[in-house]
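For the sake of transparency, this paper describes our internal protein records without simplification. An entry from our holdings is shown next, in its original layout:
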Amino acid sequence: MDTIEGRISSIIVERIVDGQASVQVDSTTPLLSSGLSLDSVAVLELIMEIETEFGVEFKDNDLSVELLRTVGSLAHAVREKRLAAGLA
């Protein structure tokens, strides 16, 4: 798992699902209904944590089911935003 995916996974485990020992998160972990089943509040918390951690900003129109499909898809979006902002 690359660094961004690892950091996102850590954010999810440590801050979003409160360190539940039974939660396993990797790049293929679904974030919504078929996986972690994050609700809208948890999704907003996750996005805010990621924005702070990586220095990126997600606009309302960025937020989609595709973006939140897996940890990997979210990490890909973070990488793209960082490249566009010259933060790579």
